[in-house]
Amino acid sequence: VSVVLPFFNGKEFIEETLESLRRQTFRDFEVVAVDDGSTNKEHSGHFSAMIASFNDPRFRYCPKANGGLSNARNFGADLGKGAWIAFIDQDDLWDEDKLERQMTVVRENPEVNLIFTDGRNIGDISGELGVASRNGLKEGLVRDTYTRLLKGNFVICSSVLFRKNMQAKAGQSNPCY
Q1: How open is the CA angle 73-60-70, to the nearest 5 degrees?
Q2: Which residues pair with 61 in a beta bridge?
Q3: Taking the complete model, does pTM exceed 0.70, yes or no?
Q4: Can you spell out the DSSP letters for the chain?
Q5: What is the pLDDT of the chain when averaged over all its residues?
Q6: Which has the least CB within 10 A, 15, 17, 80, 112?
C-alpha cells in the first residue's frame, strides 16, 4: 500500500498524523509524504526533519512546487510503488488497524477496487467525538456505488483505499512531469 500524505504549511497536527501511520498493524506500506510547496520554511523543515528522524525507508519526503491538494495527491500516487493507494490528510488520524481491516477486505473480495470507511470528527468546539459518516452504512459491500455517488458524495477521502491501476484507467496523470 502506498499512503499519500499531502502537506502544506501544516505543522500543527502532522506529528499525530505521522504517529497514526507508524502505529498501523498492517506493516507492508510506504508513505509518500508530499510537501506541496510549503511557503512556511519552519513548517516544511519540521515535516522533512520528522520524516528523516524515523530512519524508516518506508517514509519518503517528496517536495514539489505548489499545485494544490489534488495535484499533490496525484503526484504522490504516481510516485507510489504499491498496488493500492490510500490518502491521509495532514490533520487526519487513522485507527491503528485501518489498513489491516481494509486489506482483509481485499483478500476476501478480490473483485473490489475501492474500499472506504466511516470516520470520526475530533477536536470540534464542544470537544465531543462524533461520527462523520456520510453513507449511513455499517460494514459490508456497497453495490451500485455509481448511482449512489450521483446523488451525493458519501466517501471520506482519508478513508479511501483503491487499486493504483484505477487511477490510470480514469485518465489521471501528474501535470508536474
Answers
A1: 5
A2: 33
A3: yes
A4: -EEEEEESS-HHHHHHHHHHHHT-S----EEEEEEE--S-HHHHHHHHHHHHHH--TTEEEEEE----HHHHHHHHHHH--SSEEEE--TT----TTHHHHHHHHHHH-TT--EE----EE-S-TT---EE--SS---SSPPP-HHHHHHH-----GGG-EEEHHHHHHTT---TT-
A5: 85
A6: 15
